Protein backbone atom coordinates (compact mmCIF):
# COMPACT_ATOMS: atom_id res chain seq x y z
CA UNK A 1 0.00 0.00 0.00
CA UNK A 2 1.48 3.36 -1.01
CA UNK A 3 1.52 6.00 1.64
CA UNK A 4 1.05 9.64 0.79
CA UNK A 5 1.20 11.54 4.07
CA UNK A 6 -1.85 13.63 4.74
CA UNK A 7 -1.89 16.47 7.19
CA UNK A 8 -3.71 14.95 10.14
CA UNK A 9 -4.52 16.57 13.43
CA UNK A 10 -2.54 15.38 16.43
CA UNK A 11 -5.98 14.46 17.83
CA UNK A 12 -6.63 12.03 14.96
CA UNK A 13 -5.61 8.88 16.90
CA UNK A 14 -7.86 9.84 19.81
CA UNK A 15 -10.80 10.64 17.57
CA UNK A 16 -10.30 7.47 15.54
CA UNK A 17 -10.10 5.35 18.71
CA UNK A 18 -13.31 6.87 20.05
CA UNK A 19 -15.18 6.33 16.79
CA UNK A 20 -13.96 2.73 16.41
CA UNK A 21 -14.65 1.79 20.03
CA UNK A 22 -18.09 3.42 20.00
CA UNK A 23 -19.04 1.23 17.04
CA UNK A 24 -17.45 -1.93 18.42
CA UNK A 25 -15.27 -2.35 15.33
CA UNK A 26 -12.01 -3.07 17.17
CA UNK A 27 -10.89 -3.97 20.66
CA UNK A 28 -8.72 -1.83 22.90
CA UNK A 29 -5.90 -4.34 22.34
CA UNK A 30 -6.18 -3.94 18.55
CA UNK A 31 -6.10 -0.17 18.90
CA UNK A 32 -3.17 -0.34 21.29
CA UNK A 33 -1.26 -2.57 18.86
CA UNK A 34 -2.03 -0.20 15.99
CA UNK A 35 -0.85 2.79 18.05
CA UNK A 36 2.41 0.98 18.87
CA UNK A 37 2.98 0.14 15.20
CA UNK A 38 2.14 3.70 14.15
CA UNK A 39 4.56 5.14 16.70
CA UNK A 40 7.35 2.76 15.66
CA UNK A 41 7.12 3.90 12.04
CA UNK A 42 7.49 7.62 12.64
CA UNK A 43 10.90 9.18 12.11
CA UNK A 44 12.91 10.07 15.18
CA UNK A 45 13.02 13.77 16.03
CA UNK A 46 16.81 13.82 15.86
CA UNK A 47 16.72 12.38 12.34
CA UNK A 48 14.25 15.05 11.23
CA UNK A 49 16.34 17.81 12.76
CA UNK A 50 19.41 16.54 10.93
CA UNK A 51 17.54 16.17 7.65
CA UNK A 52 16.20 19.73 7.90
CA UNK A 53 19.61 21.02 8.99
CA UNK A 54 18.33 22.38 12.29
CA UNK A 55 21.03 20.50 14.26
CA UNK A 56 24.46 19.09 13.53
CA UNK A 57 25.38 15.45 14.18
CA UNK A 58 27.47 16.60 17.15
CA UNK A 59 24.50 18.51 18.63
CA UNK A 60 22.16 15.53 18.16
CA UNK A 61 24.60 13.25 19.97
CA UNK A 62 25.07 15.81 22.73
CA UNK A 63 21.30 15.96 23.27
CA UNK A 64 20.95 12.17 23.07
CA UNK A 65 23.71 11.74 25.67
CA UNK A 66 21.85 13.94 28.11
CA UNK A 67 18.48 12.41 27.24
CA UNK A 68 19.83 8.96 28.13
CA UNK A 69 20.54 10.01 31.73
CA UNK A 70 17.62 12.34 32.36
CA UNK A 71 13.85 12.22 32.20
CA UNK A 72 13.66 15.23 29.91
CA UNK A 73 12.63 15.02 26.30
CA UNK A 74 14.90 15.59 23.32
CA UNK A 75 13.28 18.91 22.41
CA UNK A 76 13.45 20.26 25.95
CA UNK A 77 17.16 19.53 26.15
CA UNK A 78 17.88 21.04 22.72
CA UNK A 79 16.04 24.23 23.66
CA UNK A 80 17.74 24.46 27.06
CA UNK A 81 21.14 24.09 25.39
CA UNK A 82 20.28 26.85 22.93
CA UNK A 83 20.43 24.57 19.89
CA UNK A 84 16.77 25.15 18.98
CA UNK A 85 13.87 27.44 19.75
CA UNK A 86 10.57 26.15 21.10
CA UNK A 87 9.11 27.06 17.69
CA UNK A 88 11.69 24.84 15.93
CA UNK A 89 10.75 21.91 18.18
CA UNK A 90 7.03 22.50 17.60
CA UNK A 91 7.50 22.56 13.84
CA UNK A 92 9.50 19.32 13.86
CA UNK A 93 7.00 17.58 16.16
CA UNK A 94 4.20 18.66 13.81
CA UNK A 95 6.16 17.37 10.82
CA UNK A 96 6.85 14.10 12.67
CA UNK A 97 3.12 13.71 13.36
CA UNK A 98 2.26 14.40 9.72
CA UNK A 99 4.64 11.67 8.60
CA UNK A 100 2.72 8.98 10.51
CA UNK A 101 0.02 6.91 8.92
CA UNK A 102 -3.42 7.84 10.24
CA UNK A 103 -4.62 5.36 12.86
CA UNK A 104 -7.61 4.32 10.75
CA UNK A 105 -5.18 3.28 8.00
CA UNK A 106 -3.04 1.21 10.39
CA UNK A 107 -6.20 -0.49 11.72
CA UNK A 108 -7.18 -1.27 8.12
CA UNK A 109 -3.72 -2.65 7.30
CA UNK A 110 -3.73 -4.93 10.36
CA UNK A 111 -7.20 -6.23 9.45
CA UNK A 112 -9.06 -4.69 12.38
CA UNK A 113 -11.25 -2.59 10.06
CA UNK A 114 -12.86 -3.41 6.73
CA UNK A 115 -12.34 -0.93 3.88
CA UNK A 116 -15.92 0.31 4.33
CA UNK A 117 -15.40 0.80 8.07
CA UNK A 118 -12.10 2.58 7.41
CA UNK A 119 -13.79 4.98 4.98
CA UNK A 120 -16.58 5.63 7.46
CA UNK A 121 -14.28 6.18 10.44
CA UNK A 122 -12.06 8.45 8.34
CA UNK A 123 -15.03 10.66 7.53
CA UNK A 124 -16.37 10.51 11.10
CA UNK A 125 -12.96 11.47 12.45
CA UNK A 126 -12.67 14.43 10.13
CA UNK A 127 -16.18 15.53 11.11
CA UNK A 128 -15.43 15.06 14.83
CA UNK A 129 -12.35 17.22 14.63
CA UNK A 130 -14.67 20.04 13.69
CA UNK A 131 -17.16 19.41 16.57
CA UNK A 132 -17.02 19.14 20.37
CA UNK A 133 -15.71 15.84 21.73
CA UNK A 134 -18.47 15.27 24.30
CA UNK A 135 -20.79 13.13 22.10
CA UNK A 136 -18.18 10.45 21.26
CA UNK A 137 -16.90 10.26 24.83
CA UNK A 138 -20.47 9.65 26.02
CA UNK A 139 -20.93 6.88 23.42
CA UNK A 140 -17.72 5.12 24.51
CA UNK A 141 -18.56 5.35 28.20
CA UNK A 142 -22.02 3.78 27.66
Question: In words, what does this structure look like?
Answer:
66% of the residues lie in helices and 0% in strands. With 142 residues, it is mainly α. It folds into 2 domains: 8-23 and 101-142, no CATH class; 42-99. Helix 1 packs across helix 8 (115-128), helix 1 (12-23) packs across helix 9 (134-141) and helix 7 runs antiparallel to helix 8 (115-128). It is elongated.
Alpha carbon gyration radius: 18 Å
Which of globular, elongated, flat, extended, rod-shaped describes the shape?
A: elongated
**Roughly what is the average pLDDT, rounded to an integer?**
86
**Overall number of strands:** 0
**Number of DSSP helical runs:** 9
The largest sheet, given as strand count, sense and whether it forms a barrel, is: none
Number of structurally distinct domains: 2
Q: In percent terms, what proportion of residues is strand?
A: under 5%
How far the N terminus sits from the C terminus, by CA atoms, comes to 36 Å
Along the chain, the helix and strand elements come as HHHHHHHHH
What ranges have pLDDT less than 50 throughout 5 or more consecutive residues?
1-8
Percent range of helical residues = 55-70%
Structural class determined from secondary elements: mainly alpha
Amino acid sequence: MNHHPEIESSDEPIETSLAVLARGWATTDEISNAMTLRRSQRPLIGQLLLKHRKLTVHEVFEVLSEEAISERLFGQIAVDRGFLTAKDVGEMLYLQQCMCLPLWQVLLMQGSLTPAQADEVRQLTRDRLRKPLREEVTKCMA
